[in-house]
From TrEMBL, chain A:
Domain 4Fe-4S ferredoxin-type residues, every copy: 46-74, 75-104
Cofactor: [4Fe-4S] cluster
Domain of life of the source: Bacteria
Catalytic activity: glycyl-[protein] + reduced [flavodoxin] + S-adenosyl-L-methionine = glycin-2-yl radical-[protein] + semiquinone [flavodoxin] + 5'-deoxyadenosine + L-methionine + H(+)
Name of the protein this chain belongs to: Glycyl-radical enzyme activating protein
Organism of origin: Tissierella simiarum
From TrEMBL, chain B:
Residues recorded with modification Glycine radical: G762
Cleavable signal peptide: none
Statement: the UniProt record of this protein carries the keyword Ribosomal protein: no
Residue intervals of the Glycine radical domain: 667-786
InterPro entries per record: Gly_radical, Glycl_HYPD, GRE, PFL2/GDeHydtase_fam, PFL_dom
Entry protein name: Glycyl radical protein
Lineage top rank: taxon: Bacteria
PROSITE patterns on file: GLY_RADICAL_2, PFL
Keywords annotated in UniProt: Lyase, Organic radical
Domain PFL stretches: 4-660
Organism name: Tissierella simiarum
Length: 300, 786
């Protein structure tokens, strides 16, 4: 039985496609966006998050760790992530849930069971299931298998992707995907390399091919002040997108919600101090798109 | 739009300070002293009402179009010494308490002390009830195993149907006479009793007609004095209406409202029945009048709206009569639970939504009053536009209207043996109770504290709070070898306690039937006239007795916790768990964390927990459902708490689900606090696994912050949630849409948030009127943000 690694199954998801949906977050991503608000989705491996504010300094975790990966400093636990084998014992025994295990292996069968639990809401609302991440295309065999099962069950499917993958992966799943939520982050390749860590040519090519085939596409554009809220990027995007067949564009203003997660994972955050774009700027950008005749929405 | 007239009346209603009026007590006292022993009890009760309606001070408020107050002016609140004879200390408490107070004058205290107490102390129903209960019953009552509804208020819980819009009281009186003439003194041993009941009903008809006539006279008097020509004309018009209804059937929209209001006043003056009284399917009753008058140009939407608004204010002017002790704890509110239904189905099964239904929603939206409560009956035939219009009001976050599944309500009634027409013309009242309007006496008798019964089970019959043995010995829980053994022990305790409650109920029903008939209410509930029987004595067509289950979310999580941690995973032993509970988890934070955070919980669509919920639900259902009551009907269950979940929590120590001692229980069938972590669909799926159709109502609360329900999409999603829950046969759902921040601020600065209304449990209340514990509980209820 095929299985995959997921972070979370989010029920009553109302911003990831039409209707009431279940969003499955798959773990692992080839991109490293500076603004990523789900840093726990980047690594392909399971991880343990530490919520500093929940720690009651009881030292229970130190005693439970078989690898001696936890040492107490000023009655606060410090984890040596090199020694840690992610057995999860410290998370199980933390009396205040200051440690949470991120990432779970799940079989297609078990995942389908969870997805099907909310079928009545999908039917009523015209919703379904959305696969997000991370980058769901990374676990293509698992994704393909789950999509096939969803189609057998007549459940509406959406895939939220960065597009950074080999076209043949799209080819595998395209007949089982009712809607693509496709990210468009930076038109400028140099900047793309700098802020995301990979070039953007395959992303743009794949999007064009999807459009040519006639797939249903919603474009999702994160807007980060000083990085991609400049007129040049907006005009380039409009030029590119108006040549394609796009149903709707969602502008997603940068938010800081992910900031604490970096700390919990022991990672650095490149954008500390970054503010969210102003409402005025968001409206200006939205108007640019509108005047080119595109259906635009601020937010998911 | 609110007219200037309505705005003023509304403001006066809101700022009026509730106080105790002794007018009623004095009249009741006089009538009893004069007539007790010389007439039959039903006739005595009818004479009480007749004297009340003949002597009470009348009141027409400036500018109002619908007239009549229960007291001498708005929010003047009478006492009912024949039900509950308050001590002078009770009066002091009512006067002094911070919440739900009633101001009591020195004069009132003096009357109570010198006139009322000496005569009524040992004549009140409360006295008779407590005197007739067994020691076991009293121990359970003191321990908080169950509450008793009838110790301070009368049975009622019923709703008007359409008959008062088709017949006047002269016609009712004629029917009563016919029924007397048809009595069979040759063969019917009860013929004389019936004659007395019917005589009393006829006197009760006189009482309401006297009230109407007196209001007509007062309006004429006031018109003569009135300088403003417009108001003069209005008063003359009121006089004209009051000299027609209630004696005759209403001819116009306005007369229909006035007719209902006179009926309402008589029901709540005769006794103080639970849930006061209720026009029920108001949109259905008013529509024929509305349609006819609008078509001939005598009425327009604006005028109808203003009349309805005036009507609304009348409800708000009548706070629930003062309660004390446990009754106050289980129902701590000024709301008297008149709960107006809109939408639903017609008798022929077609969609009931009409223009008046929309009009009623507009009135609810604009009036924003605590009373009356309002609800929308949603069937699969209900137009989406209507549901969304209702949800737009819900989204404003003050807790009205609540939403009911009309199709489920009909099925519940059919299962209980009602005809399809009676079922379709029924609805829900009080908090969430299903009833055949105008035809059923459905009496709620008290709440049953399910988690407390588990606590007693885990202590082998002992109540740890009092140290008394109040249950039976069902074995030392540390010796149980399986979860099933524990559950069997729980079922034995449950059986024992339900026995005690049901016996108590039957005795109390008999006491009410013999000592406290309600001839007026009997006139308007089928088939009291044709049977010659009182409402309290089995005269209604359907007679149901409810015991309301409380804390299903908590008991499910408690049993799940034990099954999962002690028996399945062996995370700790029963002794360890009991020790942790005894210490209120002090020094056992690891166990508390395991049971609180790492154990399956009801409310997440997790079958492990939800199957245990079903098991407890059926155990309760099987224990109660079908036991005969004393009025020719049976006992049934429903699942609602009013404010009792706070009181019930306060008598229970720490529980196996990690809840600390004395904290509130979950309300209705909602998951316990913080247990639902998978969002609203998880809650709805879990709650949908209960068999709602075999109950007489269940209550589910969901709290959202405003951002979740923003915009057209937010509204659509809310509607989808409602429709999905109703597809699963869910009975009722209600939403609280207030940010946590707002609530915290309101708690700190009550003066700035005086008008903040929140959903409590099946009804709404001013947040600032709630006790601190209840406020905290509402703040803590899971905030669903996604």
């Amino acid at each position: 039985m095929t299985s995959g690694t997921i972070i979370n199954i989010q029920k009553y998801s109302i911003h990831d496609g039409p209707g009431i949906r279940t969003t499955v977050f798959l773990k692992g991503c080839p991109l490293k966006c500076w603004w990523c608000h789900n840093p726990e989705s980047q690594s392909y491996k399971q991880e343990i998050m530490f919520f500093e504010e929940r720690c009651i300094k009881c030292k229970a975790c130190e005693g439970k760790c078989q690898q001696q990966a936890i040492r107490i400093n000023d009655s606060f636990p410090i984890v040596n992530r090199k020694k840690c084998i992610l057995c999860g014992e410290c998370a199980n025994f933390c009396p205040n849930n200051a440690r949470e295990y991120v990432g779970k292996n799940i079989t297609v069968k078990d995942l389908m069971k969870e997805i099907q639990k909310d079928e009545i809401f999908y039917e009523e609302s015209g919703g379904g299931v959305t696969f997000s991440g991370g980058e769901p295309m990374v676990q293509i065999d698992f994704l393909n298998e789950v999509l096939k099962n969803c189609k057998d069950m007549d459940i509406h499917t959406a895939v939220d992707t960065s597009g950074y993958t080999n076209w043949k992966n799209f080819n595998k799943i395209i007949d089982k995907v009712d809607l693509f939520l496709y990210d468009l982050k930076l038109m400028n390749n140099e900047k793309h390399l700098k802020y995301i860590g990979v070039p953007n040519n395959s992303i743009l090519e794949n999007l064009k091919k999807l459009s040519d085939i006639g797939a249903n596409i919603f474009i999702r554009m994160p807007i980060i002040a000083g990085i991609n809220d400049d007129n040049e990027h907006i005009i380039e995007s409009i030029k590119f997108l108006s040549s394609l067949n796009i149903m709707q564009i969602n502008l997603l203003p940068y938010h800081k919600m992910g900031m604490d997660k970096y700390k919990r994972l022991g990672l650095d955050y490149n954008l500390s101090g970054m503010e969210k774009p102003t409402d005025e700027r968001m409206i200006e950008i939205a108007n640019e798109f509108k005047s080119s005749g595109m259906k635009i929405k601020i937010g998911g | 739009m609110m007219t200037e007239r309505v705005r003023k009346l509304r403001e006066e209603s809101l700022k009026a300070i509730p106080y105790i009026s002794m007018e009623r007590a004095k009249i009741v006292d006089e009538v009893y002293k004069k007539n007790e022993g010389s007439v039959s009890i039903p006739v005595l009760r009818a004479l009480v009402l007749k004297e009340l309606m003949s002597q009470k001070k009348l009141c027409i408020n400036d500018g109002e179009l619908i007239v009549g107050e229960r007291g001498e002016k708005p929010v003047a609140t009478p006492t009912y010494p024949e039900l509950c004879c308050h001590t002078v200390e009770d009066f002091q408490v009512m006067n002094d308490r911070e919440k739900i107070f009633f101001k009591v004058s020195e004069e009132a205290k003096k009357i109570q002390q010198e006139v009322i107490i000496p005569y009524w102390e040992k004549r009140s129903m409360r006295y008779h009830i407590l005197n007739n209960m067994t020691q076991e019953w009293k121990d359970c009552y003191a321990a908080g195993i169950f509450t008793e509804f009838m110790e301070q208020r009368g049975p009622g819980h019923t709703v008007a149907d359409d008959k008062i819009y088709k017949k006047g009281f002269l016609e009712f009186q004629k029917e009563i006479q016919e029924s007397i003439q048809n009595l069979d003194f040759h063969n019917d041993d009860e013929a004389l009793d019936k004659k007395e009941q019917l005589k009393a009903m006829s006197i009760a008809c006189d009482a309401i007609m006297i009230l109407g006539k007196r209001y007509a006279e007062l309006a004429i008097e006031m018109a003569e004095e009135e300088k403003n020509p417009n108001r003069k004309e209005e008063l003359l018009h009121i006089a004209e209406i009051c000299s027609w209804v209630p004696a005759n059937a209403p001819r116009t929209f306005e007369e229909a409202l006035q007719m209902y209001w006179f009926v309402h006043l008589c029901v709540i003056s005769e006794l103080n029945p639970w849930d006061s009284f209720n026009p029920g399917r108001l949109d259905q009753h008013l529509y024929p009048f509305y349609k006819k008058e609008v078509e001939c140009g005598k009425l327009n939407r604006e005028k109808a709206e203003e009349l309805l608004q005036c009507f609304w204010i009348k409800f708000n002017n009548q706070p629930a009569p003062p309660k004390v002790g446990v009754t106050l704890k289980e129902s701590g509110t000024y709301t008297d639970f008149a709960n107006i239904n809109s939408g639903g189905l017609k008798a022929d099964g077609s969609d009931g939504v009409n223009e008046v239904s929309y009009l009623v929603l507009d009135v609810i939206d604009e009036m924003r009053l605590l009373q009356p409560s309002s609800n929308v009956q949603v069937s699969k035939k209900t137009p989406q536009r209507f549901l969304k219009r209702a949800l737009k009001i819900v989204r404003k976050g003050w807790g009205q209207p609540s939403l009911f599944n009309a199709d489920a309500v009909v099925q519940e009634m059919l299962r209980a043996g009602k005809t399809i027409e009676d079922a379709r013309c029924g609805g829900t009242s009080g908090c969430v109770e299903t009833g055949a309007f105008g035809k059923e006496a459905y009496i709620l008798t008290g709440y049953m504290n399910l988690p407390k019964i588990l606590e007693i089970t885990l202590n082998n019959g002992l109540d740890p709070a009092s140290g008394k043995v109040i249950g039976i010995e069902t074995g030392n829980p540390t010796e149980f070898e399986s979860y099933e053994e524990l559950f069997e022990a729980f079922k034995k305790q449950l059986h024992y306690f339900i026995d005690i409650k049901v016996i108590g109920n039957r005795v109390i029903e008999k006491l009410y039937a013999t000592k406290m008939p309600v001839p007026f209410l009997s006139v308007i509930i089928d088939d009291c006239i044709s049977k010659g029987k009182d409402y309290n004595g089995g005269g209604a067509r359907y007679n149901t007795t409810y015991i309301q289950g409380v804390g299903i979310g908590n008991i499910t999580d408690c049993l799940t916790s034990i099954k999962y941690n002690v028996f399945d995973k062996k995370n700790f032993t029963m002794s360890q768990l009991l020790a942790a509970m005894k210490c209120n988890f002090e020094g056992y934070k690891d166990i508390q964390n395991l049971v609180k955070n790492k154990t399956p919980k009801y409310g997440n669509d997790d079958d492990y927990a939800d199957e245990i919920m079903q098991e407890v639900f059926y155990a309760y259902y099987n224990e109660v459902n079908g036991r005969p009551n004393g009025r020719g009907g049976v006992h049934r269950i429903n699942m609602l708490p009013t404010t009792c979940h706070v009181y019930f929590g306060s008598v229970i120590g720490a529980t196996p689900d990690g809840r600390e001692a004395y904290l509130p229980l979950a309300d209705g069938i909602s998951p316990s606090k913080g247990a639902d972590r998978n969002g609203p669909t998880g809650v709805i799926k879990s709650a949908g696994k209960m068999d709602h159709i075999i109950t007489g109502g269940t209550l589910l609360n969901q709290k959202f912050t405003p951002t979740v329900v923003e915009g057209e999409e937010g509204l659509d999603n809310l509607a989808h949630l409602v429709r999905s829950y109703f597809k699963l046969d869910g009975h009722h759902i209600q939403f609280n849409i207030v940010s946590k921040e707002t609530l915290v601020n309101a708690q700190k600065n009550p003066d700035e948030y005086k008008d903040l209304i929140v959903r409590v449990a099946g009804y709404s209340d001013y947040f600032c009127n709630l006790s601190k514990v209840l406020q905290d509980e509402i703040i803590e209820r899971t905030d669903q943000t996604f």
